[in-house]
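Anyone up for a design puzzle?
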């Protein structure tokens, strides 16, 4: 066979493969899209409007999230005589594309990005004004946009602040922020959130859902959930009446259909509908919808780029999710051998439930598609069982990331524990290999390595050839 024919055969083969993957991808996306449209609103329970004398504290990762998720709730609460405070974790000063459009030029400086952050602050003040929230009840914490996950995972201590590539600094450059000059570090974010909880004594806290796909949104969820969980342990009288609710902004192509459809209702994304979140819906009146549109219109820097997406949140309702408090139960007797892990009877429900078949890689490689996580502990170890959609293979790398905290009196201490497991290969010195059985991967983690912590934030992720396939996001768990 001549070289010409071999080359032609290779081209045809590549073309066929491309056609196969394109068709499979399109089929998958259509499947997700139709599934998202098929969840009936009747499956949701009613979210009761806040009664008088309640105190709502809403955390928004960026200016606009609070309006998208909670504009109707805010109006209902104020109308009924409750108080509403809104705290912005960042000023959205990392959204370079929006800033370039705002200033009509490329190559923006760090000063330009900070100026853009101030523009977004003003948009937030005007938007919330349309909903009835006065300037005095709006707080800007001033942390870096696109940086909250870095603060959570790598820059916890104030001795090791994060430098934002967009603002160029490692502290809040905004003189009007909650603690001017606050360092870009996880412990400072946590301390600010606790300060706000102490100051406003909320009956209801709101933040983005842990499974929200924007890294700032899932990190915001971790910080707020952790702050409340720690305070419920250390200061139960202050926080015993406080309930935490989650709203959702980013998840695949949700909400579908995109665009302004005022007669349609919001329902949770199909892949999240049957997990452990209990979803409920708050109805909006046409008047509340009008004011929600007016508030969204104040975010001119955002509507210029994604008005259709923002208007997708103007529906006949808003949805909120509650998650049960998860506790890693104790297990007796102790597990003496590695192989003993697979004999554990995992009596409790999973501590983490994750959507399955929710992205293209998970669709192609079910071994990396995380389904759920079980965990128990004894006096020395925490035992973890990771379940996947298809049998575990050594092509996938699995990692367990845990943010832990030491002595309860020293919550700002602690650290980050990361275990990477390649099935069948050594992971930690006292565990010769992570144990594999069909769709389950078992590992044990010495409690001393996670500071015998009473609370942990745990995330399990999978990757293939260095590309992340699936992640559960961080879940705050009691030990
Ligand atoms: Zn956002």
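Challenge accepted. My sequence:
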């Amino acid at each position: 066979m001549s070289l010409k024919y071999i080359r032609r055969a290779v081209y045809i083969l590549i073309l066929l493969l491309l056609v196969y993957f394109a068709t499979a991808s399109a089929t998958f996306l259509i499947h997700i899209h139709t599934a998202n449209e098929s969840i009936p609103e009747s499956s949701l329970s009613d979210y009761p409007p806040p009664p008088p004398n309640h105190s709502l504290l809403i955390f928004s990762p960026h200016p606009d999230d609070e309006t998208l998720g909670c504009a109707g709730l805010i109006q209902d609460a104020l109308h009924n005589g409750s108080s509403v405070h809104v705290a912005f974790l960042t000023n959205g000063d990392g959204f370079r594309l929006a800033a370039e459009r705002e200033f009509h030029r490329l190559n923006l400086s760090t000063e330009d990005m900070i100026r853009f952050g101030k523009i977004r602050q003003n948009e937030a003040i005007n938007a919330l004004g349309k909903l009835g929230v006065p300037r005095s009840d709006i707080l800007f914490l001033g942390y870096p946009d696109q940086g909250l996950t870095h603060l959570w995972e790598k820059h916890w201590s104030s001795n090791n602040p994060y430098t934002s590539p967009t603002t160029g600094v490692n502290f809040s450059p905004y003189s009007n922020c909650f603690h001017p000059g606050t360092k870009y570090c996880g412990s400072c974010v946590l301390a600010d959130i606790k300060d706000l909880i102490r100051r406003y004594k909320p009956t209801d806290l709101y933040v983005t859902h842990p499974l929200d796909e924007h890294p700032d949104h899932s990190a915001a969820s971790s910080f707020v959930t952790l702050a409340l969980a720690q305070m419920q342990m250390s200061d139960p009288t202050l926080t015993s009446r406080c309930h935490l609710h989650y709203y959702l902004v980013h998840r695949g192509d949700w909400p579908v259909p995109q665009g302004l459809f005022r007669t349609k209702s919001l329902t949770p994304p199909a892949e999240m509908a049957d997990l452990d979140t209990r979803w409920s819906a708050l109805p909006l009146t046409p008047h509340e919808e009008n004011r929600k549109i007016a508030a969204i219109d104040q975010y001119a820097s955002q509507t210029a780029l994604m008005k259709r997406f923002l208007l997708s949140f103007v529906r006949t309702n808003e949805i909120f999710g509650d998650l049960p408090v998860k506790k890693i139960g104790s297990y007796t007797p102790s597990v003496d051998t590695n192989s003993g892990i697979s004999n554990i009877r995992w009596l409790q429900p999973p501590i983490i439930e994750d959507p399955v078949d929710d992205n293209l890689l998970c669709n192609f490689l079910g071994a990396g598609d995380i389904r759920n996580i079980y965990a128990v502990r004894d006096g020395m170890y925490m035992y973890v069982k990771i379940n996947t959609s298809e049998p575990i293979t050594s092509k996938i790398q699995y990692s367990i990331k845990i943010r832990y905290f030491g002595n309860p009196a020293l919550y700002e201490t602690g650290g980050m524990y990361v275990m990477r497991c390649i099935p069948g290969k050594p992971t930690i010195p006292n565990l010769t290999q992570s144990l594999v059985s069909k769709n389950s991967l078992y590992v044990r983690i010495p409690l001393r390595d996670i500071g015998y912590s009473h609370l942990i934030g745990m995330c399990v992720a999978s990757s293939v050839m260095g590309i992340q396939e699936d992640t559960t996001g961080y879940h705050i768990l009691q030990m």
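A detail worth pointing out: Residues 61-62, 65, 214, 217, 249 surround zinc ion (CB under 6 Å).
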